[in-house]
Amino acid sequence: MGADLTANGSHGAAAVPAGGDDHGHSDGHDHIHPAPSNFLSKYVFSHDHKIIGIQFLFSGLIFFVLGGLLAMAVRWQLAWPWKPVPILAKALWSHPALGYQMPPEDYNKLFTMHATIMIFFVVIPLLTGAFGNFLIPLMIGARDMAFPKLNMFSYWFMWPAFIIITYSFFVEGGSAEAGWTSYPPLSVFRWSTPGSLNGQTFWLLALLFAGISSLMGSINYITTIVMLRSPGMKMFRMPMTVWAMFITALLQAFALPVLTSALIMQLLDRTAGTNFFSPVGHTVANSPPVVGGGGPLLFQHLFWFYSHPAVYIMILPGMGIVSDVIATFSRKPLFGYKPMVLAIAGIAGLGFIVWGHHMFQSGMNPQLGATFMLSTMMIALPSAIKVFNWLGTMWGGRIQYTSAMLNAMAFVAMFIIGGLSGIFMAATPVDMHIHDTYFIVGHIHYVLFGGSTFAIFAGIYYWFPKMFGRMMNERLGLIHFFLTFIFFNGTFFLMHIIGMHGHPRRIADPTAYEFLRGAGVTGMNQFMTLSAFGLGLTQLIFAYNFLSSLVVGAEAGPNPWNANSLEWSTASPPPHYNFETLPRVYHAPYEFSVPGVEADFVPQTVPLPRNITLDPVMA
Amino acid sequence: MRYWSILFAVAAVFSVGAFVYAPFSADWWLPNVAGDPYHVVSTFGKEIDSLYFIILGITGVAFIGTQIVLVWVQYRYVDEIGPDGKPTRPAQYFHGSQRLEVVWTIIPAAILVFLALYQMDTWASIKLRSATPRVPVLAEITGRQFQWVIKYPGPDGKLNTADDLFTVSDLHFVKNQTALIQLKSSDVLHSFFLPQMRIKQDAVPGMTIPVWFDADTAGHYELVCAELCGWGHYKMRGHVTVHETEEEFQKWQADQLAEQNRSQLSMASESQGR
């Protein structure tokens, strides 16, 4: 740990001075602007990708707190329906006539906003916004993003979204409550449910701003990765994190316009009197009947055409992060580097032709269901390839149990559960029974919490030293991981069981149904809720560790983990414009434990020994 | 440090254990008749459950296999420092194996294609319009916030005539007869979910969707709304009664019709009196 790279001997000689003859695509970035000197241009309206990444990191973590608190309130109601929340009841639900209990429409708001915030304000901003911005230029050896000003705007366009979504809790009727999928007509007719008064409009506006931000980011990522790689950084020498971000950005760029159009159409339906999503003659809550019109299924097609790829937008960067972390802490080359890249590309490609599996029971032509079943089954394949390759990477390695590595291994273990439970939903007849039950809720949380969130933790533990120049406390990190892993499984695994028993999702009171009144379902709901509270409290350890390490963490040095990729060849935190001289790259970043090399790692800036020949198919 | 692998093993055992224990508790298992937890009452239910068990078996084997490998590598390949301060065992240096990649691509692909093709027939017989059974329509069911409005054809056997019978959230049909309904929605999306019969179909404004099912045991069941439909979504519950015989059903229908006519008459006389 803490090895100084210059001690490696050849490192200094390997660097190519900027402006040298063969610096490839990097022409545009040779003239180095002076570093910004005042506080506003340095930390607030910064053009620096590192600061923007850290801005996304802090914003995402703050919304993580809000999203988590909403989840705990949801869990409270499910375990003890209509029981006022102890201590907080009077502050939260001030209806003495109802005995301070949570009204059912507020329950709907809670889960709607929990999902919206977690997906659009936590997971996507953290994975693509925070890690994408911070890491991409550093990992490909660029001085900054291709469009630094656009990058700044991509963060500042999140602020209208942050403000609108937070304010929406306080508008007439309260926040949106039509679920994060926001299906019309419930979301369109103003009196169909309280949250459809004004909250839904705010919800649509917030998502539009968040979408614009994502689109700016993805254009920037694609251009940067294609144009600004340092000399020698071929596409197949990029770390998996960069590959994942690249393909994620392509997914965003192609899918997001479809969601944007769906959101604008719904906004017009709500405010301008159009009827894209309501059939002729339709009426809700004594509204005048619809003249001319479309159909509710149109929205579902448009929504899932984006939101199914969005599931991969939320997991692919995590897969990239985990690949890098696992290779580093197994001290072993990544097993099947090229198949891993192809698997990510395969997931992205297939991701566009599986959206219909959300609509098997929706009234969509059932003939289509058969087609979507086949394509959905096939998407399990690249995911399986990735899992086997991670296991292959660890096999024969020398595993170091750091907090980052444990979180990465938890990603693999939990992603297996999330992936396998997906097969049940892909099978159309089985989906008949488990669609819209807690089985789905369990599945999505294994993919998005067990997957994405463990990857986010792995990434934070791994790159914190690079971001802030200090180490996080390992002991606290291990305790945080241990408790998170236990409480996570306690919270989400039994959802598969109650879902199998038919427990519908999104119902404020399970005991309204006789078949859910048994001691088993009630007991499991209470067990899950207690675990969820444990999971929430455990994150305080992380928050304390994160914040205190910013101030008192041990000095990190440039390469605390003895890793190979380019970000570790510069100082921690990296200086303005990242690299003194643009690094020259000789190989992919996974050359660990190379025979005949004294150190167990060979940074990308150092050539491999002459006697090493790589398998062109696998590496 | 290698004992971190135990944590992962515990999680895997907990996951498998939950599914192993589930059949021993009626509340944990697939929803069935009270007091007869392993008896799926509908024809489709039996098919769907057997498909479910096939997938559970395949995914269970895949899950246990991958978790064993994961726990094993965590235990076996731990980083140990020897007395000389160096790792006791260097990591192996290899970049992958094309043969392995091919093997673990083809085997899962074959299994997944088999699963998809194997399910097609069941799906077709439950959902395709061309498979709609040629039986008289039992009822037209319209979802509205927050109840199921059910319209039965009266004694003339035709819907939308003067003798139609209306009930609210009260569905009746006869044992061992295929019940065919026409599903509609009058306001927002709802979803017609019969957990004990493993039937689910969204009710969509502007569409009329045929749904069919049966039950081999008379008794009382539940009808659930499975698509978020507003603040009262959670209580949009329907009662399902499966009658032992056709006569019993006819008698119930006749009683209901008489009741309906009485209340209509009294309403009419009230309005005349006003």
From TrEMBL, chain A:
Q: Which residues form the Cytochrome oxidase subunit I profile domain?
A: 39-586
Task: State the Gene Ontology BP annotations.
Answer: aerobic respiration; electron transport coupled proton transport; respiratory electron transport chain
Q: Which domain of life is it from?
A: Bacteria
E.C. designation(s): 1.9.3.1
Q: Which residues cross the membrane?
A: 51-74, 117-140, 152-170, 202-228, 240-268, 310-329, 341-360, 372-392, 404-424, 444-464, 476-498, 527-547
Under the heading InterPro entries, the entry gives: Cyt_c_oxase-like_su1_dom, Cyt_c_oxase-like_su1_sf, Cyt_C_Oxase_1, Cyt_c_Oxase_su1_BS
Instruction: Report keywords, A-Z.
Output: Electron transport, Heme, Iron, Membrane, Metal-binding, Oxidoreductase, Respiratory chain, Transmembrane, Transmembrane helix, Transport
Keyword check for Chaperone, yes or no.
no
A GO molecular-function term, please? oxidoreductase activity
Enzyme class (EC, first level): oxidoreductase
SUPFAM superfamilies of this UniProt entry? Cytochrome c oxidase subunit I-like (SSF81442)
- In this chain, the stretch annotated as Disordered covers 1-28
Subcellular location(s): the record lists:
Membrane
Q: How does it sit in the membrane?
A: Multi-pass membrane protein
Sorted alphabetically, the Gene Ontology cellular component annotations on this record are: membrane
Please state which protein family the record places this protein in.
Belongs to the heme-copper respiratory oxidase family.
Entry protein name: Cytochrome c oxidase subunit 1
Organism (species): Paludisphaera borealis
Lineage of origin: Bacteria, Pseudomonadati, Planctomycetota, Planctomycetia, Isosphaerales
UniProtKB/TrEMBL annotation, chain B:
Domain named Cytochrome oxidase subunit II transmembrane region profile: residues: 26-130
The UniProt entry, under InterPro entries, shows: CcO_II, CcO_II-like_C, Copper_CuA, Cupredoxin, Cyt_c_oxidase_su2_TM_dom, Cyt_c_oxidase_su2_TM_sf
Q: Which residues form the Cytochrome oxidase subunit II copper A binding domain?
A: 134-255
Any Gene Ontology CC annotation: plasma membrane
Report the protein's function: Subunits I and II form the functional core of the enzyme complex. Electrons originating in cytochrome c are transferred via heme a and Cu(A) to the binuclear center formed by heme a3 and Cu(B).
Q: Which family does it belong to?
A: Belongs to the cytochrome c oxidase subunit 2 family.
Q: What is this protein called?
A: Cytochrome c oxidase subunit 2
> What organism does this protein naturally occur in?
Paludisphaera borealis
Please name the taxonomic classification of the source.
Bacteria, Pseudomonadati, Planctomycetota, Planctomycetia, Isosphaerales
What gene is it encoded by? coxM
